Records
---
Amino acid sequence: MKMKKLLLFLSCVLCVSADALHEDIHVIGCSYIHGGVMFGLDREELWYADFEKQMDVSPQPTFIQPIGFGAGAYEAAVSNLDTCRQNLHFTRESLKDYPAQRDAPSGVMIYTRNEVELTVKNTLICHVTGFYPAPVKVSWTKNGRITTEGSSINTPYPNKDGTFTQIARLKFIPQQGDVYSCTVEHLALTDPLTKTYNVETPETPETPETPKPSVGPAVFCAVAVIIGLLSAAGGIFFILKANKCI
């Protein structure tokens, strides 16, 4: 029988299979402004609801057989979000003075999904982790100007230490000299955190080094000289000894 761990945090439900080879998760999280519903497997997103665009998203890799969640999955997520906010309201009413814990992001990284080739479509990833509460706000710029086209952000993913991870993506076409940045805002930050990415031509392979002379013959010659000197010294020793005996 599978053992299940249940974590309830302001209507954020985390289900973990403790004795199986895989770990599955279902997150329902909310505030009065933001909300998220997500299904995941082995720390990878399978499905989440994008409430801003009013649609569901399945960021599953193309090389696996897609895992479906059935018709009406987005509508069910909207219903779960409403229930979450009702529970949040009742919780705040009963715990009027609960402490507001805030942890700033411990790590922000920006990198590309695939190896960069100029003029070939790619995706920039802004990986934010170690923050509490969720979510963070991520904005993108291209050459100093705010850009939103092709951008998306996933539902906050809970870490084992109680903090969250969130990943923002930006589809782009690399052009030599372009500069992109992702800026992260969070309740625990006094100033936003910004990471930049410069598009550069991939480095050309280095010219093979000129083969260096082998040290083998030199070592061999040195050893031969030493052996020769030792042999000469041995011969002189025996000659002198023989002379004494005469």
---
Amino acid sequence: MAKVLVPLAQGCEELEAVTLIDLMVRAGIEVVTASLDDERVITASRGVQLIAQTTLDQVLGQEFDLVVLPGGLPGADYLNEDPRIIELLQRTVQHGGLSAAICAAPKVLVSAGLLDNREATSYPGVIDVEPAPGMQYLDLPVVDAGSVLTSKGPGTAMDFALILIERLCGAEKRLEVEQGLQRS
């Protein structure tokens, strides 16, 4: 079973966080949510309260198949300012896992050096104005650049989650989850 970490920062985008978590759980993926500090109640960008299962310090020694960052502000800024997140993203990719971010959170992937010489997307005005060295910004809902995936914003969260499920569990599992959602 795949294991995924979703760090939840104060001010994260709730629609993105909940959509990513919910769809991956539907796929049978072990999803761990972690707050950046000891305050496990997260007040998201629109005031919705989320409760993290654990803290980042408690899971730092664990290996994950995917670390995925919800966007939103100021949540993405808090993730970007946390050296533990940067190191965790880098280590995950170095060990053959995936790192992913949506909305404003791809800026953290830029800081981690994971978008150097890759294609990527984000919420407009985030990484298209301050790209990584050699990065090509694509105005697409989701960009799969191998071990690093990015997505544009809240409206793309479901497609992003389904692509992450496919990468972790295969096309059959993605289709199973997607059919249960009655998207068509």
---
Amino acid sequence: MQQVAALESSVLVLNKFFMALHVVSAKRAFALLCKETAEVISIDDGKFSSYNFENWKDVSLYKAKSGLPEEDNVSWIRTVSFEIEVPKIIRLLFYDKLPQSSVKFNRRNIFARDENKCQYCGQRFPTSELSLDHIVPKTYHGKTTWTNIVCACTECNKKKGGRTPEQAGMRLKRKPVKPKHSPILSLKLRSDKYRSWKQFLDEAYWSVPLK
């Protein structure tokens, strides 16, 4: 289970010019490193270092054999032949396109915006136990937009049915809005684990105090 969790760890992806693009899983990050289309960016004592996959394996091996206590918020992948630390940041060596100026409207970003909380009962659920609800149903010409879609748990979704919240006697916990910045990045930055991402993001992302 730890290995699976480590492979699903979040890794910030930068473009060739060190500008933040998006977040991928560690599994995807390692695939890019193995293809030699990306490098690891490590920040130690305020200094930047870059490593290709083989060099990062050597660095990880040194850390593993140093006998020092493992750092907090660091994930490891352990195979039969070697151990390797999951990087927190990678840089694409040949991708020079600029970050998107608007946030993509998709399920992943809606779950992140609503913090995996049902917007009717306020409880947090695994993504698999949440659905996306049209506040104003499609039967009433409700649109599929940031301001009309929210997360809803199974029970609340059943209770609301094909009605508006008012008709169902329900109230939203907060008014849905279109996020100005990636909700996934904003959510991750609340954790100390991703402090190193700050240096590559606009201050608006991390103005909220870390939890």
---
Amino acid sequence: MRRQLRRREDEAAVDMTPMLDLVFIMLIFFIVSAVFLNESGLALAETPNTNPPGSSVQTILVQLDALDGAFIDGTRVNLIAIPSRVQTLRAQAPEAIVSVHAQSGTSVDAVVFLKDQMDAASIPVSIKVQK
């Protein structure tokens, strides 16, 4: 009889506390060690006309059409070649302002690619997207 009573008393109970502690420690570890992305975007704000009429400052106009074609001062140019062409034109006129005008159908990829290329070449540029 005693053996039967002892067996019922010796039944083990599952203690969940150590498992919960481990889960919380792992959660804290992954939160602390996670890499948070800092994505930056384009600041597309309306800018005032920096080249008023009658001014002697030259403007280098880069136009992007709806088919992602690129034009510098009316001449068709490959999108990849724009930063080098702009640098050449800025060598001739160092105070020249670079202005990019994109039509409403222009892809965002083309505008962002051009902005990245201009930033890599350290060329200040203003971007205007037509509505």
